[in-house]
Amino acid sequence: MAKISKDPRLPVQQLVILSLCRLADPISFSSVFPYLPEMIESFNVPKNEVGRWAGITSAVFSLSQAATGIFWGRASDRFGRKPVILLGMICVMSTGLLFGFSQNLVMAIIARALAGASNGNVGILRTTVAEMVPQRELQPMAFSVMPLMWTIGSIFGPGFGGALANPAERYPKVFDGPFFRKFPYALPNLAASLFFFVGLTAGSLFLKETLETKKHRRDYGRVVGKSIMRIFSKNKRQQRTLRDDEQAAPLLKHSHLSSISTKHGGDTLRPPDKPVFSRQSNINLLTYTLLALHSVAYDQLLPIFMHHPPQNSRSSNPDVALPFIFSGGFGLNSDRIGLLFTWYGVAGTIIQFLIFPPLARYYGVLNSLKVVTVILSQQGVMFLIMLVKCFAAIFAFPCVIILLTNSAVSLRILGTLNGVATSVSAIGRATGPAVGGAMFEVGAERGWAILPWWVLAGFATLGAIPVWWIVEKEGFGGPGDQSHDEEDQVEEPEVPRAEE
């Protein structure tokens, strides 16, 4: 039996492979934002109703995700993380292509609903990272990898969406043909499918199973992957390095996990007969839901506001009183919106990779979460809002996910817990765009285009409240960890450092 290294290291190779599996999803998701207002207009929807239908289109995605999130989480607990992750990627790629080929508003909404129903990987990927890296001192860096992939995807996604949407009009010399005139929004989704193909290939061939009850079964995908790498390896030492990459620093105590199986008669497919959630898990879930509501509503509302026609004269709204009463937007097209979101993503990548891990380690996850949730409720000027929101959200999501992971009553139900987190946060992601789109329509009609932003500020303020009842838990990687089936004590003393 291998001993845990006194200086544990991150499983870099597996995190890189997991990142490739994650990257395609945010590219596909965020590529829709720049061209969604134009797409809805192309379905002969009046301009003053675009915001409402854009919100509905985003809401059905999240509602469908909420309905199936627990199912995907339980499936990963039963069948393993790897097969469910790969199946989810195939489903998301297929439904994304269906959305790109939509010919009317109903088809587009159905495609987004199917995409949401098949998008359960976010919680499973978090569970996989938690099983790879239980050490709390490594969690800030490990748990920032998946949000980093989201941020990087958010750089490329809007760029693809804005630049490749309606190519027959933008690049007639290259794409002027009946196919791209009939399906003007297919090209961004075709481009995103290439990233899914890369992730599926890397995951099938090289990703290791992390669920204890399934990790020792024969993985034919990895057998093929090792054969391919053996062909390209220059010598046996390289082969041995690849094969033994992570054995030098095993990150889960096999004896702990084996004791779980023995204790329950070998039946590790069923969750323990106790409540899945502790009080801290419930508070974290509430915080996560409100955070998701605000963040997704903001990202959905911003391109609608940017695309909305500007107010060129006071005749359309004689009661203008900046910065509170106005009815115009910026009148930007999809490629300009995509460029702005690309730079927004670049800033987010810098914050995610260089700023979040050291600050979260130094100040602690819970303290970082408290600060940024307060920041989200105090937004001001447009450009500064983008930067402030970017900074706060990049800190908030990894922090709340780390705290949620460490609040689990058992490692065996971690997949289910993250599935529930995906579902309840999807309710927030559905509510936010729907409410934001409706408020934008009402505000635009009455000359109060700022109305949805005040509503979002109210939601952000609500999201900051439950954070102060969160208690930072030990997690599963601490030196005093006795059993992963021991129920967390609510009054356990707060540990100085943690994170996601």
Secondary-structure map:
Elements: H1 12-30, H2 32-42, H3 50-79, H4 81-100, H5 105-117, H6 121-132, H7 139-143, H8 145-164, H9 167-170, H10 172-175, H11 178-182, H12 187-206, H13 220-232, H14 236-243, H15 254-263, H16 279-307, H17 334-363, H18 365-376, H19 382-406, H20 414-446, H21 451-464
Can you give a write-up of this model?
It is globular and about 65 Å long. The chain is built from 21 helices and no strands. The protein has helices spanning 12-30, 32-42, 50-79, 81-100, 105-117, 121-132, 139-143, 145-164, 167-170, 172-175, 178-182, 187-206, 220-232, 236-243, 254-263, 279-307, 334-363, 365-376, 382-406, 414-446, 451-464. The protein is mainly alpha-helical and 500 residues long.
Brief account:
With 500 residues, the protein is mainly alpha-helical. Helix content is 67%, strand content 0%.
Rg measurement, Å: 23 Å
The unreliable regions are: 1-5, 242-273, 377-383, 479-500
State the major sheet.
none
Which structural class is indicated by helix and strand composition?
mainly alpha
Provide mean pLDDT, rounded.
74
Binned, the helix content reads 55-70%
- The count of helical stretches stands at 21
Overall spatial form: globular
Label this structure with key terms.
disordered N terminus; mainly alpha; 0% strand; 21 helices; 500 residues
